[in-house]
Amino acid sequence: MKVIEIDKNNLPERFDIELGVEIFSFEINYNQTGDFFSIDLYKNDEPLVLGEKIMYNQSLFQDIEDQRFPAPQLIVTDLSGKESRVTWENFGVTVFLVVNDGE
User: Fold this and answer.
1) Which of 11, 33, 57, 58 is the most exposed place for a label (fewest CB within 10 A)?
2) pLDDT digit string (tens) for 69-90?
3) Among 51, 26, 55, residue whose Cα is nearest residue 41
4) Are 9 and 102 in contact (CB under 8 A)?
5) Which strand (E) or helix (H) includes residue 19?
6) Model confidence over 13-52: pLDDT tens digits?
7) Are 47 and 34 in contact, with CB atoms under 8 Å apart?
């Protein structure tokens, strides 16, 4: 597993990331009213998904079958197993976005 470092104090933040053999762009956003994070996914500046809610221990984009999407599984989890949801207080502290590439 590889942790994707996100500085929540710089949100919204957009960055490029290599997943598998392809380059994607993520934009991470925070909804203060609902206390949740969301992610936009782009490939070649084309939006593939906008506003995917980041849910604890659930794969991102799991309900979408599209060959343009990243092959590795992306999941937000607490590697220590102490948390049960993603919040402003724990995201990037104990809860991280990780790439599960099978290693």
Assistant:
1) 33
2) 776 888 999 878 888 899 999 9
3) 26
4) no
5) strand 13-19
6) 999 998 888 899 999 999 999 999 999 999 999 999 999 9
7) no
Predicted TM-score (pTM) above 0.70: yes
Residue with tokens 């993603």: 86
Tokens of residue 6, six digits: 């996100």
Mean pLDDT value across residues 52-58: 93
In the structure encoding, which two tokens stand for residue 32, read together?
A: 């203060």
CB 24 within 8 A of CB 16: yes
Range of the domain at 96: 2-100
What b/e sequence results for 23-35 when a residue is b if at least 16 CB atoms lie within 10 Å of its CB, and e otherwise? ebbbbbbbeeeee
Using DSSP's 3-state secondary structure scheme, residue 10 falls into helix
Among 69, 19, 77, 17, which residue's Cα sits nearest to residue 47?
Answer: 69
